[in-house]
Amino acid sequence: MDLGLNGKVAIVTGASRGIGRAIAIELAREGCDVAVAARDTAKLEETSAAIRVLGRRALAHAADLREAPAPAALAAACLEQFGRIDLVVNNAGATKRGDFLALTDAEFLDGFAMKFMGAVRLTRAAWPHLVKSSGCVVNIIGQGGKYADTEFTIGGSVNAALYNFTKAMARRGVKDGVRVNAVSPAAVETDRLKVRIQETMQRRNLDEARAREELGHELGQARIGRPEDIAYLVCYLAGAPAEFIRGAIVDADGGAGRAI
Fold it and tell me: At 163, is the pLDDT very low, low, confident or very high (cuts 50, 70, 90)?
């Protein structure tokens, strides 16, 4: 299937590793030039090198998106390098887990600053250029916005806010000609999940393969997701065949979801 992405320009945040890196590389395979952003400069350069190997242009933009001016600076750098913006993938942001009573105001504010406000500010900065290109926004959110967890009060609240933001901007996008959708993954093979696998190994005295199986079963998933699973879905949502899909929040959860 031709997704119609050849020659498009994408911005992907949190692209130094995991889901963001996989998205950036898969978009390059589909023909996009990609501006990648994250705080880890060395890892970001590795992502950029992988994009260039595929014959596409890459811009590595090291930034801390918690800082208010950073998202607009990222959009400006992309425009200076490539002259346009066709797609924004808001993927950056991790939030602290833990006992609610032990979590501080600063930790809540930090969680919202990166994942929520980073997405809000980048979307705002890129929006006029997305209107010009009839472009797209895809937000990577997370199942914690739907299913409350006492150990995930920061992340769940941030994700729920992003669900609402996605729907609101999709409504604005109908008027402005910008498609806005989201992908909501369950457990995916990332550095953070590897920590949970290690904890499962130690707690239950299991080898790694068995710990993965046990964790997947515990979460109700057919298997642990792979970053590429999310990347394929993002490419489809950004592509021409998904032109009629607007305001969708697509679960990529391995069958774990129970809500209708």
Answer: very high
The answer to whether 34 and 58 have CB atoms below 8 angstroms apart is yes
Evaluate whether 234 touches 183 at the Cβ level (below 8 Å): yes
On whether both 134 and 220 belong to a single domain, the answer is no
Residue 260 belongs to some domain of the structure = no
Domain assignment present for residue 208? The answer is yes
CA nearest neighbour of 88 among 159, 158, 14, 3: 14
Q: What's the total number of domains in the chain?
A: 2
Cβ neighbourhood burial of 217 (10 Å; 0-12, 13-18, 19+): exposed
pLDDT tens digits for range 72-118? 999 999 999 999 999 999 999 889 989 999 999 999 999 999 999 99
Identify the bridge partners of residue 140 per DSSP, sorted by sequence position: 183
pLDDT of 201-240, one tens digit each? Answer: 888 888 888 877 777 777 888 888 899 999 999 999 999 9
Give the burial class of 54: count Cβ atoms within 10 A of its Cβ; 0-12 exposed, 13-18 middle, 19 or more buried. middle
Q: Are both 31 and 112 inside the same structural domain? A: yes
Residue in 210, 13, 208 with CA at minimum distance from that of residue 92: 13
DSSP code at position 225:
B
Give me the residue label for tokens 């979460």. 219
Residue 99: other Cβ atoms inside 10 A: 9
Q: For residue 71, what are the contacts with CB-CB under 8 A and spacing of at least 6?
A: 63, 65, 118, 121, 122, 124, 125
- The pLDDT tens digits for 18-50 are 999 999 999 999 999 999 999 999 999 999 999
Could you give the angle at the alpha carbon of 188 between the alpha carbons of 186 and 194, nearest 5°? 125
For the whole model, what pTM was predicted? Answer: 0.93
